[in-house]
Design a protein that fits this description.
Blueprint: H1 3-14, H2 31-53, H3 74-83, H4 93-97, H5 100-110, H6 113-119
Helix pairs in contact: 2-5
């Protein structure tokens, strides 16, 4: 189970006075913290971009782990689940445009038949836009 889901369950179960949770998160936004988080995520994306580009040897890669062009593995499965919505979390088009290898990797993973079956219609943002989280 996702650890965030477990924490949300515990908060809803035991934190009736909002001691460990914000009663209204929109009142708690601190722009410096938001900016720092964005920088850290972009830094991590840049590390993945360098890995996929083969900048430091070996040529461009299709997957994150393995020899040569890489091999689809649990590393890709785990990372893709967190990175696939990179375009929706507040980065500018210019910031994302510099991540060409990462964007190709996102599409490559999404096009795998098992991934398409696993996501299905339920996770299609065009069919269920109410499930999208907006950060802007």
């Amino acid at each position: 189970m996702e650890s965030s889901a477990e924490l949300l369950y515990l908060v809803n179960l035991a934190d009736k006075n909002n001691i460990f949770w914000f009663s209204d998160p929109t009142d708690q936004i601190i722009q410096n913290a938001v900016d720092r988080s964005k920088r850290e995520v972009l830094r991590a994306y840049n590390v993945l971009e360098i890995r996929l580009s083969g900048k430091y040897g070996g040529g461009a890669r299709n997957y994150l782990a393995g020899r040569d062009k890489g091999k689809y593995s649990i590393v890709d499965i785990n990372a893709w689940a967190w990175i696939r919505n990179a375009g929706r979390i507040g980065f500018s088009e210019d910031e994302l445009a510099r991540l060409t290898h990462l964007q190709k990797w996102i599409v490559r993973i999404a096009m795998r038949p098992a991934v398409e079956r696993g996501l299905g219609e339920w996770y299609d943002e065009h069919v269920h836009p109410e499930l999208l989280l907006e950060t802007s």
